[in-house]
Amino acid sequence: MKKGDETKRKILSLGFELASKLGLECLTIGALAKAANMSKSGLFGHFQSKENLQLQVMSHAGEVFNEGVVIPALMTRAGIPRVRKIMENWMQWTQDLSGGCIFVSAAAEYSDRPGLVRAFIREQQDEWIKCLSKIAESAVRVGEFRADTDCEQFAFELYALILGFFLYQSSLEYNGARQLMFKSFDRLIDSYKSDH
Questions:
Q1: Largest CB tally within 10 Å, which of 51, 58, 176, 181?
Q2: What whole-number distance in Å separates Cα of residue 187 and Cα of residue 36?
Q3: pLDDT tens for residues 126-181?
Q4: What distance in Å separates the CA atoms of residue 170 and residue 74, rounded to the nearest whole number?
Q5: Residue 82: inside a domain, yes or no?
Q6: Has residue 103 been placed in a domain?
Q7: Distance CA 161, CA 185 (A)
């Protein structure tokens, strides 16, 4: 990795951390320059605009998410172990952040703001939902989920469970959120499990 690329990756990592804590809308070139101990003009040279900064931070967050959540899950045996792994990785990902899940907060922040940032966030969310659906399809293929499984429905239900967990854990600071999540997850899996 070239020195310039490495510097930019460090800046994006810091921007990701700030956006996780403060929200994507609060991520500005000025705020990031201050946090990175850089001049605004120096940082502007990397991004050219607040919108480009936000897009690149979300893209970077997606890469980090894939490396920490998706790829390790895809390396796990197809079926229920893979489904469980992606759920566990996702929960751990959120707990490792100093703020909340940047994708969930950004989706809420930009839900009624048309533009490139909202379109990019929507595309990321669509890809993630497709990923959950494909993981369910792989569980059907190996015979661990029923043959008549509606994989889109499963993706919806798993995503809804995780969002509920985020709300209980972060916003409500509910101590038993993790236990409730695993209990609900086991019930979800049982509802799709093959009889074979």
A1: 58
A2: 45
A3: 999 999 999 999 999 999 999 999 999 999 999 999 888 887 877 677 788 888 88
A4: 27
A5: yes
A6: yes
A7: 7
Query: How many Å separate Cα 96 from the centre of its chain?
Result: 12
Q: How many beta carbons lie within 10 A of that of residue 6, not counting itself? A: 10
**Apex CA 159: angle with CA 24 and CA 138, to 5°?**
125
Q: Model confidence over 61-70: pLDDT tens digits?
A: 999 999 999 9
**Residue with token string 């809804």:** 160
Identify the domain containing residue 144 by its residue range.
50-192
**Is 19 within the bounds of a domain?**
no
* CATH number of the domain within which 178 lies: 1.10.357.10
Number of domains in the chain: 1
Residue 159 CB partners (closer than 8 Å, separation 6+): 128, 129, 132
What pTM did the predictor assign?
0.85
Judge contact between 24 and 61, C-beta under 8 A: no
